[in-house]
Design a protein that fits this description.
By secondary structure, the protein is mainly beta. The protein has 1 helix and 14 strands, in the order H-E-E-E-E-E-E-E-E-E-E-E-E-E-E. The strands form 4 sheets. The protein has a 5-stranded antiparallel sheet, with no helix packed on it. The protein has a 5-stranded antiparallel sheet with strand order 13-12-11-8-14, with no helix packed on it. A hairpin with an 8-residue loop joins strand 9 and strand 10. The termini are far apart.
Length: 153
C-alpha cells in the first residue's frame, strides 16, 4: 500500500498577518536632500509642467528613479519629479513638531541645547537607538532629538 503524504498545512492567519504587517517596517525609506534650489515637475521631463521650486537643503523621500529623474515625496506628502542631479545622499530632516527640543544627550532629562521651530531644516548626523537622532543646526549647534519630532530620518 502506498504511503500517504502528510497533508500540507496552510500558514495560520496570525502568521500571515504578522508577516504582512512586519514587512513594511523592514523596508527602509530612502531619503535625499535637494542640493540647490530646483524646480519640480508633474512628470519626468523638463517639458512637463513645473509645479514649484524646492529650496536647497530640503529633505525628500525617494520613491522611484527613472533615467536622470527621481519621483520624490516631500514632508507634506506631495509627489513630484525632480532631476537626479539636484539630489544628494546627504541627509537632512525637517521639524514637524511645533518646537523640537534638541538635547545634549540622547535622553529626556539631558540639558536642553536649543529648540527648533516647525519647518526648520536640520542636518541628520546619525540615528541613535531608542528613537533618537543626532542633528546639527546650520549655525553649528548640535544635539539629540526624538525622531518623532522630525520628518526625513
Amino acid at each position: 500500500m502506498p504511503a500517504l503524504a502528510a497533508p500540507r498545512r496552510l500558514p495560520s492567519l496570525a502568521l500571515m498577518l504578522a508577516t504582512l504587517f512586519s514587512a513594511p517596517a523592514a523596508l527602509a525609506l530612502d531619503y535625499r536632500t535637494v542640493t540647490e534650489a530646483a524646480a519640480v515637475y508633474d512628470a519626468p521631463s523638463a517639458k512637463a509642467k513645473p509645479l514649484f521650486v524646492v529650496l536647497a537643503g530640503t529633505p525628500v523621500e525617494l520613491v522611484v528613479g527613472l533615467e536622470g529623474w527621481s519621483k520624490v515625496r516631500d514632508s507634506k506628502g506631495d509627489l513630484t519629479w525632480i532631476e537626479k542631479k539636484h539630489l544628494s545622499e546627504k541627509r537632512n530632516v525637517i521639524v514637524r513638531a511645533e518646537r523640537a527640543q534638541v538635547r545634549a544627550a540622547a535622553e529626556d532629562k539631558a540639558a536642553l541645547v536649543f529648540e527648533a521651530e516647525r519647518d526648520v531644516v536640520l542636518e541628520l548626523l546619525e540615528v541613535q537607538p531608542g528613537g533618537w537622532a543626532r542633528v546639527r543646526h546650520r549655525d553649528g549647534q548640535d544635539g539629540f532629538l526624538k525622531v518623532t519630532q522630525v520628518w526625513g530620518h
